[in-house]
Amino acid sequence: MKECKTVILGSIGIDDIETRLESKKAILGGAASYACAASSFFTETGMMSIVGEDFPNEYFEKYKSFGINLEGLIVEKGGKTFRWGGTYDDNMIDRVTNFTELNTLEHFEPAVPASYENAEYVLLGNLAPATQISVLEKMKNPKFVVADTMDLWINIAREDLMTLLEKIDMLMLNDSEARLLTGEHNIVKAASKISAMGPKYVVIKKGEHGAVLFEGDEIFIVPAYPVAHLIDPTGAGDSYAGAFIGYLSNSDSAKIQNIKKALYMGSVVAAFGVEKFSLERFESLTIKDIENNFVGLKNMTQI
Amino acid sequence: MKECKTVILGSIGIDDIETRLESKKAILGGAASYACAASSFFTETGMMSIVGEDFPNEYFEKYKSFGINLEGLIVEKGGKTFRWGGTYDDNMIDRVTNFTELNTLEHFEPAVPASYENAEYVLLGNLAPATQISVLEKMKNPKFVVADTMDLWINIAREDLMTLLEKIDMLMLNDSEARLLTGEHNIVKAASKISAMGPKYVVIKKGEHGAVLFEGDEIFIVPAYPVAHLIDPTGAGDSYAGAFIGYLSNSDSAKIQNIKKALYMGSVVAAFGVEKFSLERFESLTIKDIENNFVGLKNMTQI
Question: What ipTM is given for this predicted complex?
Fold first, then answer.
């Protein structure tokens, strides 16, 4: 059995999405879908998630077409897959949640198959911190662990989150989440407080404005790749994190230069992802396209 | 009489500013104050503005301490200086205007002294487009003209603004203003529409998220210099524009490489400016400090 060097924990959902221009029902979504697809451009990626028996066969096939390893994907007998519906504001940033049906996600206990146990690069998507910790404890030799989190866990599971933060190398979170976690509006101050909670690296994501990497007092500014034709921003942060861990794993060393490049790759891949709904844009995307835009993004920032 | 190579048109105001932490009354403000002080680090700068007889002598002295040329500053007999009062939200971005007293600014007709007529680098701050045009028409040999604008003129003087846009090299404006001017939410599309209105270069400013330079299809992403100790954001955009035109003038060629560096200088100088109220931070600032942070900002962005 082939071992996976890169593994990703996250949700899988069936989404209904409304935007000003176009709406879609029952499309493939969830953090693990976006992150694993994005990572798969750089490395074979093992997925840890859960779906119900209702999960359409074509979606399994889609994962396979990206070469995603599905040994860690639980299909719950009689269960229903997580569902989410949201409507985007005209600015394509703010959104309201129309419904959330947790279904199988409610009691999800991730499986870590033997082929994942030696994974070196681990992305813990924004499930409950206790779930993230349970996965991490089964990893025998993690070299670089990134975790994402969200408002909900900061509010209701802060203690578990603090325990998690001591065990990971990098926390990736939105600016609003960084403010909620630290009580600091200023992101430089917020990042400093988060570093003190444990992670060596803190990445604060600012959506269309890019992201900022903090390593102690060192700051690295990551631009967003400019997007002229934004169709659906859902999953952009997950694609960003997935491309990051996939590229870093492929570079095979978590040295700072590779971390910076991996964050650029995150920007590039996330920007492709939002040009269509669900994983559609990734289906026609090639590593050559990604490399071209990586060079393009470098040219947009180097003086 | 010494000729000025760099001239700046803009308002001078006496401001009352309230922030969550600290408030100040009757401090020196206005676009011309910030822009000229910022420009003065790089080149002798001529100011075109107006004040009333009430304008405190110490503020004239302050301008002189920056080496600003005041031949174009009108002191209106019996007039009162423009006054503005505002309160910042806790996020230190959004603000409400508490009062505006236009006073002398209401009927301001800029003087262009003989020593300014041959200026090559011109910044037209956000006064009425007709006023901006009247200054430009008196310039005999402008090499590079930047204009700023604002919501008010987009709404009530669009025709004049369109005439101005055909005469300038660069328009610098906020993202919200770019959206208002073009009806496009997406800044890539908005910039493209503004280019079609005339200016070769469009700079869309995004406050703490930096700025983006557009030259046709070419995009250059300008990071904001991260600020940990933000005291008063008033005038940051004006300092940005002033440092830009001052550096460009000093580099003595509007080639793209210099334009990019000048935008970085804008970020660096603007970030210093917001560390204190009014021009206070600039009073202790040296060109060495600016150069150090320029290198720092480069290091934060180069991969």
Answer: 0.91
